[in-house]
Design brief:
The chain is mainly β. It has one domain: Beta Barrel (Porin). It has 2 helices and 8 strands. The chain has helices spanning 2-12, 78-83; strands at residues 17-29, 42-52, 57-71, 86-101, 114-132, 139-161, 164-175, 205-217. The protein has an 8-stranded antiparallel barrel. The longest helix is centred in the first third of the chain and has 11 residues, at 2-12.
Length: 226
Amino acid sequence: MLVVVVFAQYIVHSQYHEIGLFIGGANYVGDIGSSNYVYPENPALGIIYKWNRTTRYSLRANFMYTSIGKSDYNPNDFARFMRQYRFENSILEFSAGTEINFFDFNLHGSDKLFTPYLFLGVGYIKYDLFYHDPKTFENIEYANGSNISLPVIIGLKANVSPVVILGIEIGARYTFSDNIDGSHPKSDSGVPNGNEFGNINNNDWYVFTGLTISFTFGDLPCYCKE
C-alpha cells in the first residue's frame, strides 16, 4: 500500500501539462479540384493537449474541426474543369500520439528555447456521406460517416514565457476513406449505382496548416535520473 501511495505521488508531482489552441486553415486533396498539398483555403480550429514526459517527447491529443470545400472550376486541370463537380463537407477529428522534439525542450527555468518537432499518431474522423447527382450536380447526403486517419505533423515551437508556448505547424492526414468528397459512395446505402468517379485506388487526404498557442500548468517534472 505504501509503495502505491509513493508511486502515485511521484506521478502527480512529475507531470507538466500544456493545453492550447490551433488556429489556421485546412485543405483537402482528392478527386475534386486542385491537388495542391499545402493550400489552407478553409478555416480550421482545434484544441491541443500535451503531457510532457521528457525534454524530448510528449504524449499529445488533438481535437480538430474544419469545413472543407472544393470545386472543379480550376483551369490547371482541364479534365476536372469540364466535369464541374463541387462539394462541401465538415470533418471532426480526434487524434492521439507522440510528439518528438528534435532538440531538448526543458521547461524548467526562464531560458528562451525553440525546437522543431514531429508528431506521429492515429486519428478517428467523422464526416458526411453524400453522392453527386450527375444531372443536377447537387450533393445528395444519405448518412454520417466515420473512419481512421494517420496524422503526420511537422512544426516549430518556442517558449515566449515560462507559461506560454507558440508554434507553427503543418499536419497531413492520410485517411482510410475515398469518400470524403463523395467520389466513391456505397450502393448498399441506397445510393444509385454508377455514381463513382475519379481514381478509386487513391484515398483522400486533408492538411491542417496554422499556429498554435499553449499554456503550461501543473508541477514541473524532474527530468533528471535519480
